[in-house]
Write a structure and sequence with these properties.
Layout (H helix, E strand, L loop, with lengths): L11 H17 L17 E7 L5 H9 L8 E2 L3 E2 L2 E6 L3 H7 L7 E6 L7 E5 L8 H13 L4 E6 L7 H10 L8 E5 L9 H18 L12 E6 L4 E2 L1 H9 L4 H26 L2 H11 L2 H11 L2 H12 L2 H13 L8 H10 L4 H11 L4 H4 L7 H13 L7 H9 L5 H13 L9 H7 L1 H14 L1 H9 L14 H82 L21 E3 L1
Parallel strand pairs: 1-6, 1-7, 4-5, 7-8, 8-9
Antiparallel strand pairs: 2-3, 4-6, 5-11, 9-10
Length: 588
């Protein structure tokens, strides 16, 4: 058999859950929930391990099922089995070594040549209730690695109610489906007539304990397997147990077993994450915290309407700001009245106070945004942080400081950004030009004088045409007296002054309107920005929780999605003889 052709499933789902666990622990300020290691990769092995306390008959069961006589050196009468003993065929030795490559415990391999076992490998283990801590530590490391596909959990009639036994069962349920955790009552032949009663009590105890096992809370009772065996006499449930453990699974069955354990472990880990970090409660709290009424209430406590009204008054009473804005408006004045832009430009050029006003504006204007937004002798950033704490109190986070610390480095950009938004609102005013009809009416004297100028310019031509009798035009020379010119000039100047005053008044109203609208626009932007800054940590937290929820769902679906991608090659097996001959083992 070419083991290189066996394909392995990448352990993305387990690593993804571990990464999510680490991130959730850091985000919520809690201890990690997952203590198990990653799953083993699918391989051509069916690894069973026999776990039990001292003197429950683990080695005896192996001897009866597989016809193996243990070496007396493997077992000390005082200490029991001192290390893990792996019984594996020579063709699967390297695959088993690969599976246990990260298992930091001594494993002694016993190699046999029995092909009838197919992919089955079996491990004898130290006692989990041993008085030697090293034995307990070895069993603990095996449970944490999850490197086995099935466990036969052995107990004698005197020990099946021990807490250690059921504690081990609960730990194993985190990565084994109920069909692959066998509960075995050994030495059942010693019970005699009490066997049925003890077996029924064992089953009742098992079913009662199963209710408290979170990983199996949704499992069917019929999936849980209980055996009462006589290992020496090979009676009672021994044949059924022997067939279950030594069954030479086909490649499809083997892959199905590993995938079933994998899906079970993934479901358990995701449930553990949700329960440990209270994700369901957290989602409910986040939904309440996202309500607009909650946000507005918390925000209005730190930034009431009086705060924004005070900001408006401070901007309106800032004379340097209003004068600077007026200068910008006059510099970009539309050409509604002929000659007026030139007069305004000349007037502005002659003003020597312009540089002083710009200097005053630079000192007392928007450059001091912190002073402009101060309220009750408290800086705006302090009020934002207070609001953040209030909003984060709506969700059950134990460590809010670490979450806020991630965003503190961005707080230095708040005031410069607000200053930029104020300049965008206030410093780029536009004055709409007058309507076309009104512009024509205001510029009527200019139009008339322009027509008169054209007539005078071409007057010699008109006289020549009149002399040749080509064109008969009225003689306007008699109207061009000094008195008529003076009267027309006075009328023109009067009309022009009145038009100028009207245009200036209209522009002044537009400037004030633009200034007020700019202030209102800035205050509206200010409110939106402060609200966004206040709820930014909450939204950041909700976004990360939602992303992790999506990743958890992705990890849950990953085994289903990847199940069809991978397969293993068939393993050639021989029929299992009814009475197995002793196999030759050698110690490596």
């Amino acid at each position: 058999m070419d083991r290189e052709e066996f394909m392995t499933v990448p352990l993305n789902s387990a690593r993804l859950l571990r990464q999510i666990d680490t991130e959730l622990a850091g985000l919520l300020g809690m201890k990690p929930a997952l203590t198990m290691s990653d799953f083993h990769e699918p391989d051509p092995l069916m690894v069973w391990v026999l776990l039990g306390g001292k003197d429950v008959g683990k080695s005896t069961l192996i001897e009866s099922v597989f016809g193996y006589s243990p070496d007396p050196q493997d077992r000390d009468q005082a200490q029991g089995t001192e290390r893990f003993l792996a019984h594996v065929s020579s063709s699967l030795e390297q695959a088993l070594r690969k599976r246990f490559r990260d298992f930091e415990t001594e494993v002694e391999f016993r190699i046999h040549e029995d092909k009838s076992l197919g992919p089955v490998c079996i491990l004898d283990s130290p006692d989990f209730d041993s008085r030697f801590h090293s034995h307990q530590a070895m069993v603990e490391r095996l449970i944490q690695t999850g490197a086995v596909d099935g466990v036969a959990l052995l107990s004698s009639p005197a020990k099946y109610k021990d807490e250690t036994y059921w504690s081990i069962a609960e730990r194993l349920s985190s990565f084994l489906s109920p069909a692959h955790l066998l509960f075995v009552l050994t030495k059942a032949d010693e019970l005699g007539s009490h066997l049925a009663k003890v077996k029924e009590d064992f089953r009742a105890t098992l079913l009662k304990r199963v209710q408290s096992i979170t990983a199996w809370s949704d499992s069917l009772d019929q999936e849980i397997k209980l055996y009462a065996v006589d290992s020496l006499g090979k009676t009672l449930d021994f044949p059924r147990l022997s067939q279950t453990i030594s069954h030479p699974h086909s490649s499809a069955e083997l892959h199905g077993i590993q995938m079933k354990n994998w899906r079970h472990a993934m479901e358990f880990r995701t449930r553990t994450l949700r329960k440990h970090y209270r994700l369901n409660e957290l989602k409910t709290a986040m939904q309440r915290a996202k309500e607009d009424s909650q946000l507005e209430e918390m925000f209005s406590r730190s930034f009431p309407d009086a705060f924004f009204h005070a900001v408006c008054l401070r901007l309106e009473n800032n004379s340097a700001l209003s004068h600077w804005m007026a200068d910008r408006c006059w510099s970009d004045m539309p050409k509604s009245l002929a000659g007026l832009p030139g007069l305004v430009a000349l007037f502005r050029w002659g003003r020597i106070l312009r540089s002083k006003r710009e200097k005053v504006f630079g000192n007392e204007g928007l450059d001091d945004m912190e002073q402009l937004l101060r309220w009750d002798n408290e800086e705006v950033m302090d009020r934002i942080r207070t609001t953040r704490h209030r909003l984060l109190s709506l969700v059950p986070i134990e460590d809010t400081e670490s979450l806020l610390a991630e965003l503190d480095e961005h707080d230095g950009c708040v005031l410069p950004d607000l200053e930029m938004e104020a300049r965008e609102s206030l410093f780029w005013p536009t004055i709409a030009p007058l309507r076309l009809g009104l512009r024509i009416l205001l510029n009527l004297p200019f139009i008339l004088y322009f027509l008169l100028f054209l007539h005078l310019l071409f007057y010699p031509l008109f006289l020549l045409l009149h002399a040749w009798q080509f064109l008969d035009l009225p003689d306007i020379a008699r109207f061009l007296s000094w008195d008529s010119v003076r009267v027309s000039l006075v009328g023109f100047l009067t009309y022009y002054i009145m038009a100028t005053l009207y245009v200036l008044r209209r522009y002044g109203q537009d400037i004030k309107g633009n200034f007020r609208r700019g202030i209102e626009d800035f205050v509206s932007r200010l409110r939106e920005r402060l609200l966004w800054e206040a709820r930014r940590p909450l939204h950041h937290f909700i976004k990360r929780i939602n992303q992790m929820e999506e990743r958890i769902l992705k990890a849950e679906k990953m085994p289903e999605r990847e199940q069809g991608k991978y397969s293993v090659n068939p393993i050639q097996t021989q029929p299992l003889a009814e009475k197995r001959q002793r196999c030759c083992f050698r110690t490596v």
